[in-house]
Amino acid sequence: MYATQKRLAFLIMLIVITVSLFGCSPSAPTAQTGEEATEAVAQETAAVVEEATEAVATEAAATEAAAETGEPKGVTVAMTSAWDSMMPLNTNSNYSLFVYDQIYDRLAQGNSQGEYDPRLADSWEVNEDSTVVTFHLNPNATWHDGQPVTADDVVFTFQMYSDPEVSALSRYYLSPIAGTDDSGAELSADSIGVAKVDDLTVAITMKSAMFPGNLFNNLNSVYIVPKHIFEGKTAAEINEPTLWMTPIGSGPFKFDSKIDGERIEFVANENYFLGAPKIDRMVVRIVPTGNLLAGLMSGEIDILAGGGLGSILLDDWATAQAQENLVTSSIPTTSYQMLIINTQKPYMTQKVRQAISMAINRDALVNSLLQGQGMAVITPISPISPYYNPDVTVWYDPDQAKTMLTEENFPFDQEMVFYVPTGNTTRERAAVLIQQDLQAVGIKVAIQSVDFPTLMNNMREGMHDFGIIGSGGTFDPSESRQMLAVDSSANFCKTTSTVFQDKADEGNAALTFETRKPIFDEYQVLIKDETPMAYLYTSNSLMAYNKRMVVNVDNFSVLNWSTWTWDVQ
Question: Where are the alpha helices (DSSP H) in 194-248?
Answer without folding.
Answer: 212-219, 227-230, 235-239
